[in-house]
Amino acid sequence: MSLSVLLSTALLLAVPQSASYDPLVVDAGVIIVDTEFSYGDDKRTVPLRIYLPKSTTATPVILYSHGLGGSRDAGTYLGKHWAGRGYVVVTMQHAGSDQTVMEGVPLRDKLETLKKAANGESAQSRYRDVAATLNHLETLNQPEATYAARFDMKKVGMGGHSFGAVTTQAVSGQKFGRLGQKFTDKRITAAIAFSPSPPSVGQASDAFGSVTIPWMLMTGTEDESMLARTTPEQRREVFKHLPDSGHAYELLLDGAKHEAFGDERPTRFKSRSKRNPNHHQAIKGISTAFWDTYLKDNVEAKAWLNGNDARSVLESADVWQKK
């Protein structure tokens, strides 16, 4: 056997095989706990929903931030799936931009009310909620505390949809002009933004060019919002301006609307939404492989994510790329 053949064989054997890896397989033993805590001089309250995996050993933590007008109920399909994969998932509810801002508001005024809630003050309150939630989880993780040593606080993921994506970007590396990366929380290891947004002011290259942790962006060819009026093309500017780190990913789902990244709507609305059932499968599969790669250092997940296997959960017209 020639030396070149021997070297080729050795290289093939050294590459992790992902044939047995399946990010859609879950353990159904998930426990869901609703709780809340308060922080700061104003005693700002943050309702939480915690999805606990079956394992009671220290596992990575994923925070999730809802969109405008949402609540801790948001992202249920993701919370259950990720927890079923062995993660502690914590969904936060942000006062001032949650569902309570619409309580008692006439239907004709709801849209305008939501638009007004999407302001800079609400955004910064959300960023503080993230830091406060991480502090709270660290307290709960202390010996003799409620979840003693159950959270691996050295492996923290951050995700969110729409206004939650804005929140995610801000706390995981986005720059804000002269403020720089003021809102970045160094405890966050990796992040996923569902329906990302370009910066409201300044250049995208300046806003995202200094991101240092793995980022994944997910959007759709019809991902438009009545509130922010952000187009799919504008959402894709985020990925374009991330560093060529080898840890930046983008998924563009063909035909996916803004609501495709949220939970299924009640049965009476399904005829209007015209959802593609594969979108949720793709979102769950790709996001799980990302978390497994960067929060669990799973070599099979890394091979699956960076090889051709990732396309097994996608449709032919979906765009999947990394840099």
How would you sum up this structure, described in words?
- There is one protein chain.
- This protein is α/β, with parallel strands linked by helices and 323 residues long.
- It has one domain (25-322): Rossmann fold (3-Layer(aba) Sandwich), CATH 3.40.50.
- Helix content is 32%, strand content 21%.
- The protein contains eleven helices and nine strands.
- It has helices spanning 3-14, 76-84, 110-117, 120-140, 163-171, 204-208, 232-235, 237-240, 270-273, 277-295, 299-306; strands at residues 31-39, 44-52, 59-65, 88-92, 151-161, 190-194, 215-222, 248-257, 319-322.
- Strands 1-2-4-3-5-6-7-8-9 form a nine-stranded mixed β-sheet, sandwiched between helices.
- The longest helix has 21 residues, at 120-140.
- The protein is globular.
- 42% of the residues are buried.
Spell out the blueprint of helices and strands.
Elements: H1 3-14, E1 31-39, E2 44-52, E3 59-65, H2 76-84, E4 88-92, H3 110-117, H4 120-140, E5 151-161, H5 163-171, E6 190-194, H6 204-208, E7 215-222, H7 232-235, H8 237-240, E8 248-257, H9 270-273, H10 277-295, H11 299-306, E9 319-322
Parallel strand pairs: 3-4, 3-5, 5-6, 6-7, 7-8
Antiparallel strand pairs: 1-2, 2-4, 8-9
Helix pairs in contact: 4-5, 10-11
